[in-house]
Specification:
31 strands; alpha/beta; 6-stranded mixed β-sheet; about 650 residues
Length: about 650
């Protein structure tokens, strides 16, 4: 893996040679380079520290990975300086980062950049505060309700390979207490002298989780890592983990790569949430990184979600994960009953014509509001979306960029692509001036329901107006997926609107993603003994909605996985998505024969105002490593030849156009 740095020949071998990962994001330079350690840096140059080195006529950042011997007769360039003698990396982290880079066909230093926060010199030099020992947390009232829960808790800290997926019922408390179950698993791990990492998808979930973890384990005993922390706070927490002072970490995506002394457990919450997918190269996913770390270190792994991804279903099918969950009958008994209502014909249902709600949904709101707040989930934010001509039905487009027009505020039009606000609109086909909105957003829905139920507070939680919580009083809370606020004792009812619209999205994962979003909304509802109820408005015969009624998310996702296996689609196969400029994609595919690889495309797709060329490479899972090796080889040739154009590589892509 190491090679001599470009230098001169002749001369005696240096006494000490540093092997450095130079921060250069080029695939053909993804290896270690040898540098001579000057006498002046002998004491400060330690494995894992940040250094600066000469490289191709420039001074670049690098990481000192280790030491070795120089090849005879080779004169090496010298380390320029040691940025800090703090040993940021260790052998375990280097091996983990290397494994992630190789798995996702990426570059080692790109993974380091994702995992290690920027250095804050003042924080690094300041004395670290004393981290208190986590307070013991004894209750076992959540996971023990499930078959396999007690066995999983008993295996933590004592056995290698304690790996499970917890199917959390969609109810606000009791068996649906997701954070409570995590607390029990983390407490058991810490009690046995090991550390725990908990990864949640967004800042909203992090705030809720952190509040309960601090209450359980004591203030100051839980480290936090997320993108919204300042440089100083983030680096301070990272150093506390690296120095072995913090034993519990609650973090978002990149925290799965954080250092943890004697790691015993990784918890990944809601792995199907798209926030777990890293948008920066090499585009790793929290789920994949957790699996890699668990396999390498032997630590336990717990994935927990109200929904279920097909990727988790594949791990369960292979026996790599064990399931902790209730059967459909017990799930139905523990969660609010789900009723289905098809979209009513406005010609026969005056309520549907006036409010976009069938009469049964109106009656559901009227009777449920007496008991407390009602959550109304709609797929889109804003006021009006998907505008079209009222006369001919032609889609309304921007006169500048041809993007779709929408209305985020009453009486105002704007382009969804370029933001242009036309003062007036005229259909280019029939010259009509009036618009209709087949897709109504959260703002408009809240306005309409507020008028339909005078005296009842109508609250909108979407886009830039996300609410964290609402009172327990009678109220209509309209929210988009992921923006649902919590109610102190749960919602009296949950109304799922426009389910057909959610199922119409052009996405391979549309079915499982829709179920995930609905399950997360239902998880805020009270249980059946407290009068909780759920009503879904949409195609009642659709398998996704039928799965909600049966309480059988696992069975539905298993059927989805079987269909993808038959069609040769991820996660049943190993897939690599290569996209970018047309010429760049074609050149990349020419860099390797890719024999035995099924290549779909390249094809052109529209992404907003731009056009992108995409090719999908796929092989059976048993040939996955060979495919990744060949993709890395083709990427190395591309960078060595300095082939132009924009290109990206995604291994195990979450989205397929």
């Amino acid at each position: 893996m190491s090679t001599a740095a470009p230098g001169l020949f002749e001369g005696p071998a240096p006494r000490r040679v540093a092997r450095v990962a130079v921060d250069v994001p080029l695939a053909h330079l993804d290896r270690l380079f040898d540098y001579e350690v000057p006498d002046a840096l002998e004491e400060t140059a330690v494995p894992g520290c940040r250094v600066k080195v000469p490289f191709s006529g420039r001074t670049r950042d690098g990481w000192l990975i280790g030491f070795g011997e120089a090849e005879p007769g080779m004169k090496l360039s010298k380390l320029k300086s040691v940025v800090s003698s703090e040993a940021i990396l260790n052998d375990d982290l280097v091996a983990l980062f290397r494994a992630v880079a190789d798995h996702y066909a990426g570059v080692f230093t790109d993974v380091v950049r994702l995992a290690v926060p920027r250095r804050h010199a003042t924080t690094e030099k300041a004395p670290q505060r004393q981290w208190p020992v986590p307070t013991p947390y004894d209750p076992r009232t959540v996971l023990t309700r499930f078959p396999g829960g007690e066995a999983f808790l008993g295996a933590l800290g004592t056995e290698k390979g304690a790996r499970a997926f917890w199917q959390v019922p969609s109810v606000v408390d009791g068996p649906g207490d997701l954070v409570g179950g995590m607390l029990e698993a983390v407490a058991e791990t810490v009690a046995r002298g090991k550390g725990a990492i908990v990864i949640v998808p967004t800042i909203r979930e992090l705030d809720v989780t952190l509040t309960r973890f601090q209450a359980a384990f004591g203030n100051g005993s839980v480290a936090v890592l997320n993108g919204e922390l300042g440089d100083s706070a983030r680096y301070r927490n990272w150093l506390a983990l690296r120095r072995g002072q913090a034993r519990i970490l609650v973090a978002t995506r990149s925290g799965v790569l954080a250092p943890m002394e004697n790691l015993g457990l990784i918890v990944v919450v809601d792995d199907g949430n798209d926030s777990h997918a890293e948008p920066r190269a090499p585009h790793p996913h929290t789920r994949g990184m957790a699996v890699l770390r668990c396999a390498a270190s032997g630590c336990a792994l717990l994935m927990a979600a109200h929904g279920r991804s097909t990727d988790v279903a594949a791990l369960l099918d292979r026996g790599w994960l064990k399931e902790i969950g209730l059967d459909p009958r017990r799930t139905r008994a523990a969660t609010a009953p789900v009723r289905l209502s098809g979209d009513s014909d406005p010609r026969r249902d005056p309520m549907a014509a006036r409010l976009r709600l069938p009469s049964v949904a109106f009656d559901f709101l009227r009777t449920t509001l007496v008991q407390g707040p009602v959550l109304v989930q709609v797929p889109r934010a804003g006021h009006l979306a998907g505008l079209s001509c009222q006369r001919c039905g032609e889609k309304a487009r921007c006169g500048k960029c041809r993007g779709p027009l929408r209305s985020q505020r009453p009486g105002r039009l704007e382009c969804a692509w370029c933001g242009f606000e036309p003062p007036h609109w005229e259909c280019e086909f029939c010259h009509h001036h009036r618009l209709r909105a087949p897709i109504v957003g959260a703002v408009r829905t809240a306005e309409e329901l507020g008028r339909a139920f005078p005296g009842v507070v109508a609250i909108n939680s979407s886009a830039s107006m996300i609410r964290s919580d609402v009172p327990d009083t009678s109220a209509i809370v309209v929210a988009t997926p992921g923006a649902e606020p919590s109610a102190p004792s749960g919602y009296a009812g949950v109304l799922l609107l426009d389910t057909e619209l959610m199922l119409m999205r052009a996405d391979l994962r549309v079915a499982e993603e829709s179920v995930r979003r609905w399950c997360n909304a239902m998880a805020l509802c009270r249980g059946p003994h407290d009068g909780g109820r759920v009503l879904a408005v949409g195609p009642s015969e659709h398998p996704t909605l039928q799965a909600l009624v049966r309480g059988d998310v696992g069975g539905f996702i298993a059927a989805e996985l079987a269909e993808r296996t038959a069609a040769g689609l991820p996660p049943a196969v190993k897939a690599v998505r290569v996209g970018g400029d047309a010429e760049a994609v074609r050149d990349f595919l020419d860099n390797d024969p890719f024999e035995g690889v099924d290549i779909l495309g390249p094809n052109e797709f529209e992404h907003g105002p731009t056009t992108e060329t995409v090719a999908l490479l796929r092989v059976p899972l048993v040939k996955g490593r060979d495919l990744i090796r060949r993709v890395k080889y083709a990427a190395a040739i591309r960078s060595a030849r300095k082939e132009g154009g924009r290109l990206y590589i995604q291994v195990d892509p979450e989205v397929l156009d």
